[in-house]
Every structure is written in structure tokens, then in C-alpha cells.
Hints:
0% strand; mainly alpha
Amino acid sequence: MDTMDDDLYRDITDFAHDTPSWFQHLAEVWTELGLLLFGVLFIVAWWRARRGDPRALAIAVLAPLATAVAYVCSELLKSVIDEERPCRAVSGALKPLVECPAYGDWSFPSNHSTIAGAAAVGLALAWPRIAALTVPMAVLMAFSRVFVGVHYPHDVAVGLVLGAILAFVVVRITTRPVARVGQAMRGSSNGLVKWFAGPGPALAPSPATDPARTNSPTMSFRRYDAHQHPGHDAHRHDSQHHDPQHHDPQWHNPQHHDPQHHDSRRH
Length: 267
């Protein structure tokens, strides 16, 4: 019994055969040309980020790396699920516009769609203004895989979501350590390394890593100069050698006490 996905696949492939031949060729080319265009955009995003801060450079470098991670995960899923291609499995469907992949090149999920979804999100994180271009590109690229007859609709839908999620997670998790590497590269003595990292500004140190920026109290000591305050120094010296006779004129030594002078009324 045919499933709803099979019916949708037939409807799309029937529509593809009803389109003009030039449009069919454009769809065939776009399935591969889209990958090349994403690669060019990765290079442009990296070149722009070379003059940005290390965090911007890190995201631009991570965008293609995250796309590669998404592709590997897609291949692993393919080898586990082993879904046959619709161009062989769906009965009554028209011949695909391109050659049906060989047996063993499984259908779920779509590698092209996974790459497209990851590239679109990675580029949007590195270059937000370009999201208006990359997201429609990814959707059209995913649709073209059903249009030419080599994938089910659910293959491309899952591929888009899988690639987008993986790219977002990989970039977010690894941006900080990669930014630190980029900052170190900009201070490298190797010319090629410095060229790759670009002439952008260094990452501003945080108070936790830069003790000079903390507001901890400090103590300062000033050397006392007796020549600048002679009066004060003389007074201090005199107080250290205090003579009680000069402090209190009525002070007397009890060892020399004369009782005759102590109380004259007794005589």
C-alpha cells in the first residue's frame, strides 16, 4: 500500500516532467551548483571576518567545519537506516531526471539537504545579513533532490533540520575556544598564520584573565624624607627622648626628698 510520502513523491516527479526542459536542466545543475555556491560564500565570510574580532573569525571558520560534521552524521544515519531510493522503491513513479544512485547509496537522510541546512545556518551565524539568501538556497536545494527524483520528501525535510541543528550546536559550543586560538594566531610570528587569522583586533581581555583591569585595592608606600619636614622630624626625635622634668616642672625625685621642705608648718 502506497504511503502519503509516496504519493507526494509521485506528484512532485510528475510536475517535474511537465516543466520545460531548460527548467529541468536548471534543477539538475542546481543540486550540485548549490554546494559550490555555499563553498564560495564560506570563503567570502571568512575573508570578511579577518578584519573582525576573534569571535567573528571563529564563527566564520567554524561554519564550514560544522557543515562537515553534519555531513558525517548524515552518512552515519544512512548506514544505520538503509532506506532504499524512491526511484527504485516507489511503484508507478516516472523515471527520475537524473540517474538513480546505485544500490547501497541509501536515501535517508539526504546528504545534500543536510549540507544545505548546515551551510545556511553556519553562514547566517557568521554573516547574519546573508541569511535571506542562504535559507532560500537551502530550501530550493533540498526540494531539487525530490524534483529530480532521487529522494523522498521526508528525506530532504529531515536533512534540512538535522543540518541546521548540528551546525548551530557545533558553532555555539566551540566558538569561545576557537576565538582564543584565533587571537593567538594573530600574535604569531608566522606570516602565513597571521595572514589566515587576519589583521582584525585582538579579543579584549576579561577582568578574570587580566589582573591589571581589576579594581582590587592597592597599598602604596612613600619614603619619609626628613629634609622635607625638618620641624616635624625634630619634634618626633624629641618625643622619643622625652625628659619628664621638662614635661612637668613639679616633678621631683623621691630619693632626694627633704622632709624639712615638705611641710614648713611642722616647724
